[in-house]
Amino acid sequence: MKKPVPMKPGAFMKLDAGDARNLCCLENPVPFSKIMGMTKLLIPKALVLRALVLLSLLMGGSAWASDSAHSTHLDALFAQLKAAPNEQAAYEIEQKIWVAWTTPDDPELAELISQVLAARRTANYTKAFAILNDVVQRWSDYAEGWNQRAIIHFETGGLEQSLSDIAKTLEREPRHFGALAGRALIYQQQGNQPLTVENVLAAMEHHPYVGVRGLIPGLMQGDTLN
After folding, report:
1. Residue 118 pLDDT > 70
2. Structurally, what CATH architecture does the domain formed by 86-215 represent?
């Protein structure tokens, strides 16, 4: 009879956060389907189940902490943006916000969004749509997935589809000045000046130097709501 494989110190650090169905506390990952038949080799089933429950809680806690830190970072950037002393300073903060929006903590999601941005740069809308359709299904709470699809709809002439995705973006991130600016541009194209103005002003509440402020007659370059 083979002896149990000893766990190395710190072996739990090999756990794959993207796949809770693998128990990686041994030298080689063990498929979940085999774990429950390993009582002769390792430990009682009840203890294995307890370990798996603890693992899921730890993973959930880690994800919550990461989301919380991401949200705190964005809150700080928006506070800086609202208080930006000039257009150049606002632009630099805006770029940091876009980076935060388009680089989510989930590695798989971040890679998909990177592919979307690359596809947009080459006007490969078929690829971008395919990826974003998957993203909004699997990560429906991720605001930027909806916003990126809204942008693709806008760039391909699907204004009503873009408006629908913008609404979903703003449900998840009401401060999204990009989505508000996009909606202002759509209403301007549709000849709806009251809604154009409404959305420009809404965007300026979060980004006082947002580019679409030029759509409001009489609002001069460099003017803000302050």
Report:
1. yes
2. Alpha Horseshoe (1.25)
